[in-house]
Write a structure and sequence with these properties.
There is one protein chain. This protein is α+β, with helices and mostly antiparallel strands. The chain is built from nine helices and eleven strands. It has two domains: about 150 residues, Four Helix Bundle (Hemerythrin (Met), subunit A); about 210 residues, Alpha-Beta Complex (paralog of FGE (formylglycine-generating enzyme)), CATH 3.90.1580. Helices cover about 35% and strands about 15% of the residues. The strands form four sheets. A four-stranded mixed beta sheet has the order 10-9-8-11. A three-stranded antiparallel beta sheet has the order 5-6-7, with no helix packed on it. The longest helix is centred in the middle third of the chain and has 30 residues. It is globular and about 65 Å long.
């Protein structure tokens, strides 16, 4: 379990990091919500603040005074047991509260949290755990902030840059090799006393058949070959639902790709750039990852195959689609109360992704981390690794 001093450092650094991400924005950028999956940056700032107010200060700080009576209604996300909330699709309609108001709210809650640290000599185990979850919850929203900001600016017809120093397309400077894993019984799941989410717990054994997995992510160059070979037009490569998605939405390439004057370019957080052919492909859906693997006459790894092999390859620049449905591990137990809504209720109609991405906050991912998205989503930095 984390110590009080380490938790204080984690809390203060996490709060600063969130505001550093937003420091590159103009005021108008904070309010935009182009689609339901993207939340306005100011909402992220308020929601991560409300989490500490709702689950820490109201519970453990007896003299805490609410900043405003409406914060829960505006900034609750999906915690149904906490109370009424603004409909998710309406977050971008809130011109009020203002950005300045939200920064004042953040300061109010952060200051109260600092007083809690100063005035409480002995933190209970429960208090330590909830604050630690709150910090990692905010780190998740730091990643969402970056990907939502990219969607907001990347769908602006001017394609403005966010941050000229943000590097999102690292190159794996080595040849593809195949890692062989023999058949056998392997243990899966988190197995230390360091932080993890409840969906990683329930360490258990699985039997895996012989398989091979690539040491390298699929690159833009390799994915471009799929496009040029007519991959988006070949119905035999796609799930029925994926084929419907391709045709209804007129999908012809990964998100943020633009074919301009005969060459491929990609919108990045640095603005529009020539497509880096050797960089890992990103912003693809599960449907596209599956179709590509079919075209290569291979497949996606399961999350268990990925976890067992991950020590043998580099990971962390892209969230990697797996062939595993998001479901509970054996003996999975939800946390009591509203925090039990954090993971368990989403274990349906989603696929597991493993690894992390260039947008993932420092010290936030690990080999057992189970991210999860619906099959059509691709606004996150999602890519793929092949198995056979």
């Amino acid at each position: 379990m984390i110590s009080k001093n380490k938790l204080l450092n984690l809390f203060t650094n996490t709060r600063k990091d969130t505001e550093q991400i937003c420091s590159f924005l103009e005021t108008e950028d904070y309010v935009v919500q182009p689609v339901v999956d993207v939340s306005p940056p100011k909402w992220h700032l308020g929601h991560t603040t409300w989490f500490f107010e709702e689950f820490v200060l109201k519970e453990f700080y007896k003299d805490y005074v609410l900043f405003d009576d409406h914060t829960a209604f505006v900034f609750n996300s999906y915690y149904e047991s906490v109370g009424e909330k603004v409909v998710r699709t309406d977050r971008g309609n809130l011109s009020r509260p203002t950005v300045a108001w939200i920064y004042s709210y953040r300061k109010h809650v952060t200051d109260a949290m600092m007083k809690l640290f100063e005035n409480t000599s002995n933190f209970s185990k429960k208090m330590l755990e909830v604050i630690e979850i709150g910090c990692h919850h905010e780190k998740q929203h730091q990643e969402l902030l970056l990907t939502d900001i990219k969607y907001i600016l990347g769908n602006n017809p001017l394609l403005p840059h966010y941050n000229l120093t943000f590097k999102e397309n690292p190159i794996q400077k080595y040849e593809t090799e195949w890692i062989t894993v023999p058949a056998g019984i392997y243990e899966i799941g988190h197995d230390t006393d360091s932080f993890c989410y409840d969906n990683e717990l329930g360490r258990h054994k699985v039997y895996l058949q012989d398989y091979e997995i690539a040491n390298k992510l699929v690159t833009n160059k390799e994915y471009l070959e799929f496009i040029e070979a007519g991959g988006y037009k070949d119905v035999l490569l796609w799930h029925a639902e994926g084929w419907e998605w391709v045709n209804i939405n007129n999908i012809k390439s990964p998100a943020y790709w633009h074919h301009i004057d005969g060459k491929w370019q990609q919108y990045t957080l640095q603005g529009l750039k020539d497509l880096k052919l050797e960089a890992p492909v990103t912003h693809i859906s599960y449907f596209e990852a599956f179709a590509y693997s079919q075209w290569k006459e291979m497949r996606l790894p399961t999350e268990f195959e990925w976890e067992i092999a991950q020590k043998n390859f580099d990971w962390g620049s892209r969230w990697e689609w797996t062939e595993s449905a998001y479901s509970p591990y054996p003996n999975y137990t939800k946390a009591p109360g509203a925090l039990g809504e954090y993971n368990g209720k989403f274990m349906v109609n989603q696929k597991v992704l493993r690894g992390g991405s260039v947008a993932t906050s420092k010290d936030h991912t690990r080999a057992t981390y189970r991210n999860f998205f619906q099959t059509q989503l691709r606004w996150q930095f999602t890519g793929l690794r092949l198995a056979r």
